[in-house]
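Quick start: what a row looks like.
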Amino acid sequence: MSNYNAVLARNTENAPKSIGPYSQTVAYSHYNNLSAQLPIDPKSGKLVAGGAKEQAEQCFKNIKAIINSIDHVMSDVVRITVFVKNIKDIDAVDEVYKTFFPGYVPTRTNVAVAALPMDALVQIEALVSNGEGTIPNAPQAGDLIKLTNNTANAPTCPLSTQAVAFSHYNNLTAQLPIDPKSGRVVAGGVKEQAGQCLKNIKAILESIDVPFDDIVKINIFLKNLSDIEAVNEVYTTFFPDSGIARAVAYVPARTIIAASALPMDALVQIEAVVSHGDGTPPQAVEDRHGLIIEANNTENAPKSSLSTQTVAFSHYNHISAQLPLNPKTGEMVAGGVKEQAGQCLKNIKAIVESVDHVMDDVVKVNIFLKNIADINAVDEVYTTFFPSGVPARRTVGVSALPKDALVQIDAVVSNAEGTPPKA
C-alpha cells in the first residue's frame, strides 16, 4: 500500500478528550471523520447541567471547537447525526441547531436510541469536508466546493439538505417514509414504509443524475428489529438496480440499527452514502472521471447475500456491520461481550486485510451495544486491535441487535491507492 495519503488524527484541549481510546477527529483525503460528541464540558470533564437543549448546545460547541482547531468552519460540515434518548427532544435540539447552522444546512439523520454513554440525553456526530486533503508535501485538488441539492420529488426540510456532495462522495439525509406530495408518512406497514424510503433515495439520486447502484453504504434504522425480514423483501426489489449490477450481484455495504423511536413515529428510516465519480470541481480531468466501485468479500469473514463486506470508492472503504459470528460455522461465538467484541473486530480485520490494508488504516469505528455498561469490557478488547487509539468513534446503546448479539461493529477505512478509473 502506498503512503500517498496520510491518516491524520488530531485532538484539541477545547473539546473533551476522549473517555475511550479514540481521537476527536481523523482526517483522510478530503474528509474529516469526527468522533460523536457528548455534552461534556471540556474543562470539568463532566456532563453540563440542564436538559436536552443545554446538552445539545454543548455537543455543538464541542464539534465547533474541534472543527476550528483544524482550521475549518461549521459550514464545512456535510452531515450531522443526532442521537437522543427521547425522540421528543429533537425539537429542543433543533432550536440549538439553527444557531449553529443559520444559513447553509448539512444532510442530517435523527434517531432515538436506547442509551448513550454517561447517561447523556444527546450525542451528536459530524462529518466534515477537508478541502486541503491529507497528501503530505504535495498539492491537492485545491479548494473543492460543496454541491448541495434538493428536489421536489423527495421530502424537503428547512433543517437539512437532501444531498451534499464533496469530492467523490454524496452524503444523503436519512429518508423517512414520507410521501413528498402530501408530506405525510405513507399508509401501510413496514414494507410500504421501506419502499417509500428507498423511492425517496432514488428520486434524490435521479435529480442529480446518479445511478442507484452508485450507493456504497446503506444504514437502516428500524423501530422493531423483527421487521428486518419484511424490509429485506422490499430491499431486494431495489438492489441490484441495473443490468451491470445484477450481472455481478452488487449490493452495498450495510448496517442495521435498532432505534427506540424515529421521527414522525416511523417504523423505518434509511440513510445512504453514495459515490460521486465526477467529483466536485475544481479538479483535473484525469482525477475526476470514471472511478469504479470495488466490492469485495472474503471467506475469512461472514458473508451475506444482502450486503457486501467492503465497498471501496476513491479513497475510502466502507465496511458492513460485523456481528460476532464465526465465519466458518456462521454461528455466534461462545462467551460474553468481550468474546463477541473480539470476534466482531477479528471479522473487520479479516476484511481489511483481504483488500491489502491494515487496521491502522481504519479512520472511524461505530459500536452498537445491547448494554451500554459493557463499553469498558469492549474497550479492553478494542485496545488490543487499536493500541494507539487513533480512529474516531461512535458508541450507542440499542434495544436489540441481529441474532440477539451483545455487540455489533462497523468501520470506515482509508484507501490510500484509491480506486482506478475504468480501463
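That is the whole record. The longest strand covers residues 77-84. The longest helix spans residues 52-69.
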